[in-house]
Specification:
Number of helices: 7
CATH architecture of the largest domain: Alpha-Beta Complex
CATH superfamily of the largest domain: Spore Coat Polysaccharide Biosynthesis Protein SpsA, Chain A
Largest sheet: 7 strands, mixed
Structural class: alpha/beta
Order of helices and strands: EHEEHEHEHEEEEEEHHEEHEEEE
Number of domains: 2
Distance between the termini: 59 Å
CATH topology of the largest domain: Spore Coat Polysaccharide Biosynthesis Protein SpsA, Chain A
Helix content: 25-40%
Length: 278
């Protein structure tokens, strides 16, 4: 199996942070987003990866980081223009000769996905029930089988949102459907969407199923990143175990707030609730 990780997005909703740092290299808790994804996939036995990156310094940073930190079989394809997720997946076609697992870089989730590979479907898509599905692609499911997919509906037909994880066993049919929507210029929100290609697969008779994740941690916008960071850190042990404090360290407390300063004493300082100034 080959994992495809599209990482060529501009990260507009996370600016100004993403002006300098690619979204996948942002830290969530103690790790970068790309580390959380790659390590999770390695744990289930995946060793082949294809990354879709931008033709900029952002793309080079991602490539350099993967090469430096992981001993995996990795390929990199460049998406010169942001034409959508389906277009990004199609660019990987020359490297694909076996079933694929597509994982979008702003998707973190809990729960095992190892059992989805055993299902007798042409593909299996990760979903989660949400209160407002208008921001996401959604699926309509009957008896475990997908009947319809639609990208970011104005009037939602389902509250099962697509989280950005797709196991596609019949990868040849997916590529054919992507080529078809591009040929016919079928776009949603101005881009070629993977959801539209999957809907075409369903219309042609492909059998697609779903798997529900326990928890979906979104990293697509600032508020979501902060909430995801809080959620991950909530389960991390706290304290000074295995830590070394390098002296001198000075701690000051005022109005129920604490300030710690390393090496330099806070002498002749005034405090207010927003800033510290001399």
């Amino acid at each position: 199996m080959i994992a495809i990780i599209p990482a060529a997005g501009l990260g507009k909703r996370l600016r100004p942070v993403t002006y300098k740092t690619p979204k996948v290299l942002l830290r969530i808790g103690e790790k970068r987003i790309i580390d959380i994804l790659v390590e999770k996939l390695i744990k289930i036995g995946i060793r082949k990866f294809v990354f879709v990156i931008r033709p900029t310094t952002h793309g080079k940073k991602i490539k350099d980081y993967i090469k430096k930190n992981y001993s995996i079989e990795s390929k990199f394809v460049v998406q010169k223009k942001c034409k959508g997720a389906a277009h990004a997946i199609l660019l990987t076609k020359k490297y694909i000769n076996e079933p694929i697992l597509i994982v979008f870089c702003d998707t973190l989730f809990t729960g095992s996905i190892g059992n989805i590979f055993k299902k007798n479907f042409d593909g299996v898509i990760g979903v989660k029930e949400v209160k407002d599905p208008r921001r996401f692609g959604v699926v309509v499911v009957k008896r475990g089988r997908i009947l319809k997919l639609i990208e970011k509906p104005e009037k939602p037909i389902s509250n099962l949102a697509i989280i950005g994880v797709y196991f596609i066993k019949n990868y040849r049919e997916l590529f054919k459907c992507i080529e078809e929507i591009i040929k016919k210029k079928i776009k949603t929100k101005g881009e070629y969407q993977l959801t539209d290609a999957l809907e075409l697969m369903v219309e042609r008779g492909a059998k697609l199923g779903v798997f529900k994740v326990k928890k979906w941690l979104d990293c697509g916008k600032v508020e979501a990143v902060l909430e995801t960071n809080r959620e991950i850190m909530k389960h991390k042990p706290r304290g000074t175990q295995n830590c070394r404090i390098k002296k001198p360290v000075f701690s000051y407390r005022f109005k129920n707030r604490s300030i710690c300063c390393h090496r330099k004493k806070l002498q002749d300082c005034k405090f207010n609730t927003r800033k510290l100034y001399r």
